[in-house]
Amino acid sequence: MHLSDATWTDVRDADADLALLPVGSTEQHGPHAPLGTDAYHAETVAEAGADRHDETVALAPTIPVGVAEEHRRFDGTLWVSPDTFRSYVRDVVGSLAHHGMDRVIVVNGHGGNVPALGEVTATISRHDDAYAVPFTWFEAVGDRSSEMGHGGPLETALLRATHPELVREDRIDEARAGASDGWGDWVSSTNLAHDSAEFTENGVVGDPGTGDAELGDELLDRAAEALDRLLTAVADRDVSG
Amino acid sequence: MHLSDATWTDVRDADADLALLPVGSTEQHGPHAPLGTDAYHAETVAEAGADRHDETVALAPTIPVGVAEEHRRFDGTLWVSPDTFRSYVRDVVGSLAHHGMDRVIVVNGHGGNVPALGEVTATISRHDDAYAVPFTWFEAVGDRSSEMGHGGPLETALLRATHPELVREDRIDEARAGASDGWGDWVSSTNLAHDSAEFTENGVVGDPGTGDAELGDELLDRAAEALDRLLTAVADRDVSG
Amino acid sequence: MHLSDATWTDVRDADADLALLPVGSTEQHGPHAPLGTDAYHAETVAEAGADRHDETVALAPTIPVGVAEEHRRFDGTLWVSPDTFRSYVRDVVGSLAHHGMDRVIVVNGHGGNVPALGEVTATISRHDDAYAVPFTWFEAVGDRSSEMGHGGPLETALLRATHPELVREDRIDEARAGASDGWGDWVSSTNLAHDSAEFTENGVVGDPGTGDAELGDELLDRAAEALDRLLTAVADRDVSG
Amino acid sequence: MHLSDATWTDVRDADADLALLPVGSTEQHGPHAPLGTDAYHAETVAEAGADRHDETVALAPTIPVGVAEEHRRFDGTLWVSPDTFRSYVRDVVGSLAHHGMDRVIVVNGHGGNVPALGEVTATISRHDDAYAVPFTWFEAVGDRSSEMGHGGPLETALLRATHPELVREDRIDEARAGASDGWGDWVSSTNLAHDSAEFTENGVVGDPGTGDAELGDELLDRAAEALDRLLTAVADRDVSG
Amino acid sequence: MHLSDATWTDVRDADADLALLPVGSTEQHGPHAPLGTDAYHAETVAEAGADRHDETVALAPTIPVGVAEEHRRFDGTLWVSPDTFRSYVRDVVGSLAHHGMDRVIVVNGHGGNVPALGEVTATISRHDDAYAVPFTWFEAVGDRSSEMGHGGPLETALLRATHPELVREDRIDEARAGASDGWGDWVSSTNLAHDSAEFTENGVVGDPGTGDAELGDELLDRAAEALDRLLTAVADRDVSG
Amino acid sequence: MHLSDATWTDVRDADADLALLPVGSTEQHGPHAPLGTDAYHAETVAEAGADRHDETVALAPTIPVGVAEEHRRFDGTLWVSPDTFRSYVRDVVGSLAHHGMDRVIVVNGHGGNVPALGEVTATISRHDDAYAVPFTWFEAVGDRSSEMGHGGPLETALLRATHPELVREDRIDEARAGASDGWGDWVSSTNLAHDSAEFTENGVVGDPGTGDAELGDELLDRAAEALDRLLTAVADRDVSG
C-alpha cells in the first residue's frame, strides 16, 4: 500500500502495523549516474520488499535528501544537517505510529545516512511509542556487499535493471577513468578525508562498467528477499521491553 | 532540469541560478483523493512552470511530508513539526545555493505549509546566502482561488487532469456527503478548531464533484503561467540589499 | 483582573480559568505614530474585552516585542526571532495554565505575529495542558478590517481615541507623502519583499489622515465586543479531545 | 527617550548608543504586594536613571516575565524557562544594537533573573556586536542591600513611594505573620529548597511593615544615582577587545 | 564507591541512592598552578566527603571541562558553553537516577560553574525523576571562604596539601606580582569585565604565597565535613513534593 | 604535555598545534571489569601515543561519559545523549583551537561513540576553525581488531597490562558463562536489538579469559604506534581546503 496513492479510508481499513520508510539522498554519483540514484534505489527496494511480503505493509513516500555534505564539492549535491535529517525521520515515524503503524523499517539507499539512522531509530525505539530499525539495501546483498563503491558496480547495475534510461553509458569510460579504487584516505584506520573530493576526482569509487542489468536484477532480488525476512522478524519481535 | 535525473556534471554545465523546490504534504484528502495529493500537485505545477520558462531552471526533488498535524485524526496523515519542516527546507535551499542556485522558489501544494514557508524564506533571504520566496499554486489561479476547499473542487479537478487513476469517482457522493462547507470553526475571526476533524466529518471541505478535468487543465495552465512570471521576477530582482 | 496589580492571594481567590495575554510589537509606525503602537493597542483591546465580559478574566502583562524583523531598516524597531517569540508565549501560557487559567486568548496587535501565534497556539492546544487561540484585533472589526494598512487609518484612529498625545499630528502630511498604498511587492500572489523598506519609503501603508478619534472609538467598541464573544466561546468550548 | 513612545524618526535623530532594557518578573510578592512588583521597580529605576543621565539614553519597553519558576506554588506567578528568557533578552539587545544602540544595560528587578542575565550579557558581549551588562537595582543601594528579602522592607518601601495604591496596607500584619526570616533552607552553604514554598508560608521574606515611602524615595535615589554612574562607565568603556 | 572502578554488579549490590558528581574546570590558574586545579579539587573533596559519610555513596567520574570562557585569553583554558555544560550534567544525573541513585550532589570546584549548576539542579529537581543540589567546596569552608581568589591562597593551599608536585613554587613571586587584589572591575555593583584578562595580568587573584599545606589540610577537612552533613540532609529530605 | 598538569604559561611556551582529546565511557563491562574501562583505555592509549610522538602534543583531560544508553539495563552505566556528547566534544575542540591547538585527534575507547564522533569531527572540520578526526584504539590494532567484543579478550587484556588491580579475576568464569558470542541480534544485516541486554546476559561479549597482560602490552604498543603515525599524518595534512 503506497501511502501517497491510498486514501485515508484505505489506510484505516488496511489496519497495518508495519511500515517502510524509504530514505535516499540527492547527491553526485559520477558523470554517468543521476543525482537521485540513492532515492530511486531506496524506493525500488522498498517496493519490492513490500510486494514480496505476505502481510500488508504501508509504504511511506521517499525522503529525497539526506546526510550528504561530504559530496558538497560536486554540483547539484543536496544535503540537510544530520540533526535535521534525524528530526525529519523521527517526526515522520511518529506520525506513522500515531495511526498504529508503529513498527517501521527505514529502507536506506545511502551510506552517509547510516550513522544518523542508527542513532534515530534507537532514540525512537527507546523513547517514543514506536519500534524502528534501519535497513540499508547494499549491506543486505550477501557477498556482493563487498563490491559496493560509489556510483560503482552495484549502484550502476541496479540502475541498469530499473532505470536504464538514467545511466549515461557513453560516459562510462570517463567515469572509470576518474574513479578511485576505495573510499577515503586512511591512516591508522582513520579516514583523514571529510570530503569525497579529497580522494575521488569525479566522485566515483569502483568501476561502473562491471555491473550489468542482470546483476542489478540479482541485487534487487537479494535485497527484497532480505527485506521480506526483516519484515517478518520485525512483525514478530517482542518490543514491549 | 530535474536534479534527481541529472548528473553532477550536467548541473555544473547548466550553470543555473534559479531553482524550484516543490513541497507537498502526505495527508488525508477525503475518501476519494489520495494522501499524496499535495505533493503530486506541487510537483506537477513546478514541472509545468519550469517547462514554460525560457531559462534553465533546476527542479529539486519534492519534499513529501509537511506541516499537517491538524489532520492527525484521519488515518495515514503524516507530518513533521513546523521546526523540522523549516530546518529541512532551509538546509536544502542552503545546499542549492552552495552550488550557485541561490534564487529559489518553494512551490507549495499545501495550505498548512504557508506560514512556515513564509517564515523560513524570510529567514533564508535575510540571513543566508540565498534569496527564497514561496509560491502556493492555488493562491495563483486568479478568481478560481476562492473556490479552494480541501479535497474539494480545485484539488480534485487538478487530479482528474493529471492523475485521474487516483481519484475514486465511486466515492464522490460519499465525499460530498461528509464534507463541510468551509474551513474551520470561526468566532470573531478566530478559528477555534486546531484539528480539521472538529469541523469536517470525512476530511473534505467543498464539493469534489464540481471540478472536472477541463478545470484541472485550466488550473494547471494558470498556475504554470503565474510561476513562469514569478521566475522572471525572481531572476531579475535586485537582492543585493 | 490585571495580574500585574493583583496579589497572588487575589488570583487564588478569583479562581479564573480564562486569561488574556496581550502581545504587541515595538516597531516603526511611520514618522507620526509611536514604536509602541501595537503593544498599546493589544493592551487596550484586551482591557476593553475583559471589562465587557461577565465572568472574571485574568489579564496578563503585555509582551512588548514580537516578530518584526521585516521593519529592521527603520530605526528603533525591536524584534525577537519567531522561535524565541513562540517559546516566550508558550512558556507564559504554560505558567498561566499551571494555576488553572488554562483557556487563554492571545490578544494580538501586530500582523507580523499572526503566523507564529497560529503555530504556537496549535502546539499548546495539542501538546500542553492548555487551550489557546489568537485574536488579532484589526481582523475582528468587521468591514473595517479591509482598511488596515501600517500606521494607516485604523491604527492611527485607535491611537487618536486612546493615546492622542502620542500621535504627531504635525507630521501627518509627511507620513502620507511617504506612504505606500499597499503592503508588499507582489507577483503571482507572492510577495517578493522580505523587508518593508522595499515598498514603503517611510514605513507607512495607507493614509493616516483619514482615521479620526471617533473611528478609533468605533474600532475599540467593535474589537471589544468581538473579544467578549470569543471569551464566551472559549469558555464554553469542549477542549477535552 | 522611551522607545515605545518615540517614532522611528525620533530614534534616528537621537542617534543614541546607550540603551536601558528593564526586565522584571510577574510573580508572587506576598498577600500585600502585586505580582508585577519587580517589573514596576525595574521600569521605575530605569526611568530615574535615564532622567538623571546627561546624555540621551534609549529606554526599551519592560520585559514583564522572567525566571521565576521557584514561585510556582503561589497563584498567578508567571515564568519562562531560563533558555527562553536568555533568548528573548539576547534578541532584543541584538535589535537595539542593529540600530547602533550597542551599549546596553539590562535593568533588573528580580533576583531570580540574576544568573541568567550574567550569562546572557557575557554571551552577547563576547559573541555578538554589542556590549551588555546587568544592573540589579537592589544590589546597588549600598548598605541597604543587605535588608533585601522578598516582598520585604525594600520592595514594599519602593512600592509605597511609587505605587502606593498597589500596596494592601490592611494585609501587612498577615504578610508579616506568614513571612520567613531569610531566603532558602541552607545546609553547608547549599540551599536545599528549589521552591520558595518550601521555606515561606505566604511567599514573603522579611518584614514588609518596616519600609516606608521615605525609605522608598531614598532607595530610588540611590539606585538612580548608581545607574547614572554605570551609564557613564559603560559609555566610556573600551569594548573593542 | 568510585563508579569508574566498580563493576556493574558491584553497583547493583551496593544499592545506593546517594551519588556525588564532581565537576571541575580546565582553566588558567596563574603561572604557578595547573590548569586542572578545579577538577582536582572537586574530585579530592568529593572523595573525602564520601569517605567520611556513613552510608554508601556512589562517586561518579569527574567532569573535567566547565563554564570558563571568561579565561579564554589565557592559553590552555578549555570551556564548553553553559548550555552544553547544563546538558552534560543533566544527562549524567539522569542516568544515575535511572539506576536508583536519584539524590545527587554536584561537587563543584569552579566559581564559573555556579550559576549554571544552580539552574540545572533546579531543572532536574522540578522536572526529572531526581533531586539534585550543587555544593561548591570553597563556599563551605566557613570564614575561610572570604579569602577565595583565583589561583590564590585557598586553591594553592589545597594543592600544596594534595598535589604539591603540581605547584610551581619557583614562580610564586611572579604569580604574586601579576595578581590582582579582587575579582572583576566594578561600578555600581556591576562587573564591567566579561573576561578575567581585563582585571588580572597573569590570571591570579589574591596572594598564592600565603596558603600553606597545613591550611590546605584544614580546608579539605572543613569541606569534607560540610559535604558529609549535606549528604545526610539530602538523604533525609522529603523530595516527594 | 598533560593540559591538566600544565600551567597556562607552559601551554603558551609549548606553542603546540596538535592535541589529543581522550573520550571514554562509564558503562558496564561485565562482572569482572570496571565501568571506567573505556575511559581508562582512551587515556592510556592517548598518553602512549603522545609519548611516542616526536613533536609536542597537548593531551586534554579525558571526557568520561559518552554515548552508552544501549547499556542502560546494567547498573551504573552512565550516558549522555548523542547531541550532548557532540556538543561537549565540539566545544572542547573549539577552545583548544582558540589557543592554536587546531589539529585534534579524538582518541576514543568506546564503540558506541564512533558514529557521533564521525559526525562531530566532520562538522568541526567543515564549519569551525579546526581540523579533527577520531581514532578508536581497538580499530587500529591490525588483525587483532577482529577479536574485539565487549569486556572481552582485548579490553580485558589491556586492563591486565595497565590496571590489573581493576580486573576481578575471580569472576572470569562467571563473566564467560553469561557472555554472548557476538554483538547484536541480526536479521538481514540489521541489528534488531537497541539494548545490549537483549543479547547478552551479563553484558559481556567474547571470552575475557583469553587475553593476558602480554597481549595487553602488545595491543598498547600497536595502538600507540598507530596513533603516532596518525599524529604525523594530521600534522602534515593540508587542511586549508
From TrEMBL, chains A, B, C, D, E, F:
Single biological process term from Gene Ontology: riboflavin biosynthetic process
Entry keyword Zinc: yes
Keywords: Hydrolase, Metal-binding, Zinc
Database matches in Gene3D superfamilies: Creatininase (3.40.50.10310)
Pfam families hit by this protein: Creatininase
InterPro entries for the chain: Creatininase-like_sf, Creatininase/forma_Hydrolase
Cofactor(s) this protein requires: Zn(2+)
Keyword Hydrolase: yes
Coiled-coil boundaries: none
GO molecular function, one term: hydrolase activity, acting on carbon-nitrogen (but not peptide) bonds, in linear amides
Domain of life, per lineage: Archaea
Record PANTHER family: 2-AMINO-5-FORMYLAMINO-6-RIBOSYLAMINOPYRIMIDIN-4(3H)-ONE 5'-MONOPHOSPHATE DEFORMYLASE (PTHR35005:SF1), 3-DEHYDRO-SCYLLO-INOSOSE HYDROLASE (PTHR35005)
Record's protein name: Creatininase family protein
Lineage, broadest ranks: Archaea, Methanobacteriati, Methanobacteriota, Stenosarchaea group, Halobacteria
